[in-house]
Amino acid sequence: MIKTKQRIVWAMMAVLAPVFAFCACDEDETLPESGGQAEDRGPTPEDGATSGDAGLREDSGRSDVSHSSDGSFDAATDGDGGPEEVVACGEGGEYREGYDGKRCTTGGEKCLLTPCPGNSVDHITCECTLGIWECGLLSCGQDAGYDAGADATYDAGPADIGLADAHDLDIGNLDAGTADGGMDGGHAGDAGHPDGGPNPQPPSSPVKLIFIHHSTGENWLGDDHGELGTTLRDNNYFVSDTNYGWGPNGIGDTTDIGHWFNWFRGSNAAAIMSAVFAESGQHSSYSRLAPDPGGQNEIVMFKSCFPNSALKGNPADPVPAIGSNPLKGQDAYSAAHTVANAKGIYTDILEYFKVHQEKLFVVVTAPPLQDPTHSSNARAFNQWLVDDWLLAYPHDNVFVFDFYNVLTTNGGDSETNDLGQETGNHHRWWKGAIQHKIDGDDDGNGNVLEYDSWGDDHPTPAGGRKASVEFAKLLNTAWHKWSGE
């Protein structure tokens, strides 16, 4: 199961120091944190956008790190002056910190680090998968043991590789038959759990998705902005979209919360949704899969824009029945745009989703505003959507992504994100489980936009890219749960 070369490496690692190490096994390609704003979508600074850094430190306190093309390791000095192992998994490989979720180039480079130097010690996995570095923990289990004897064998004990709590692990597929004894197949650090738990891997064949949006969604999709289009493409989704002016009677002009009643429950809903299911065109600029796999869209993804975060009223106000809900068909500037009425709209459209279980519906929460006036209401409403809205819904064909929450913390400024960091607010696949972290802000208001475009409420490329990476794996888990794949 473990090849000779790995055994030798592991034995040498154990002799030096039984500590954890990470490696990035490819060239220094990080996920850029900024880019040009989409055309006519907010002001642009005269000197252009600047690049940021989302947690990948150029200097992690190491010196004299040598590289190898054969997967061997070299000792380096960490920031405290002590020895630490470095594994170079490919030509030009280099030890990095904070690389999880960053850009890389695929080419088969993989690494499997830190075997168990005792019982119940985790080791780290990392792999360049679909252009993104991924890492995770694999537990050796209670009965596992590491034997650094004459032949440096790894003995997993009678329990083989035992798994710790499935909610805390992010494990990859191990293939004992690969020639290099490494990891093969699937997404290292991200395989679905054997008990049928969440699976963040992309669908096995192309899936058609349509995204209903306006300007923020257009920016998010853009190759030179939020990169959602390329991220979904690389996760095997064929993406079409609607925009202003689209559809029967120009329904694409109206995407506020009150308008969703018209799309899904109004008198013209059948014609509107028939057009949504059939749409295969692009109404924004972004890269996507080719060719069109044919058939209808299986996923319907929809998002309101940032004015919808100015929700009035009180989160504790009673939710009206749909027949008496004054927000039906109204925009975000209506006096009826309150937390309670918005809850009523979303509660009612579940009736449509219930009778269309052949589709997966993805709700993307409206992005935050810089203005804090109604920010606590926006936070309360979006937490309700994520935590409470679907509690009594018996089916698996509805999923919520908290785009709002993801955009409420950054990596130091609006052009630097906090992708891959422990701190901050996130909605993501993290250490083998879905994480919705809402308490990570360290400033005076954790409910406002932290990716403003130089005073404009359209999120910067850095915010969009954070959202794209975090969203993709959650979409994959929703897809697998709904489709049974």
How would you describe this protein?
The chain has 485 residues and is an alpha/beta fold. The chain has two domains: 1-29 and 58-95 and 103-194, no CATH class; 207-483, 3-Layer(aba) Sandwich (Rossmann fold), CATH 3.40.50.1110. It contains nine helices and 16 strands. The protein has helices spanning 4-16, 215-221, 228-234, 260-264, 269-278, 339-354, 375-387, 403-406, 461-483; strands at 73-77, 83-87, 110-113, 122-129, 132-139, 145-146, 154-155, 207-212, 237-242, 299-303, 360-364, 398-401, 426-430, 433-437, 452-453, 456-459. It has a five-stranded parallel beta sheet. β15 and β16 form a beta hairpin. It is globular. The protein starts with a helix and ends with a helix.
Report the uncertain regions.
1-102, 104-124, 137-194
Look at the structure and name the CATH superfamily of the largest domain: SGNH hydrolase
Strand content: 15-25%
Please report the distance between the alpha carbons of the first and last residues. Answer: 28 Å
Helix percentage range: 10-25%
Q: What does the overall shape look like?
A: globular
Put simply, the count of helices is: 9
Strand count, sense and barrel status of the largest sheet are: 5 strands, parallel
CATH fold label of the largest domain:
Rossmann fold
CATH architecture of the largest domain: 3-Layer(aba) Sandwich
The sequence of SSEs as H and E is HEEEEEEEEHHEHHEHEHEHEEEEH
The averaged pLDDT comes out at 72
Number of domains: 2
The value of Rg in angstroms is: 24 Å
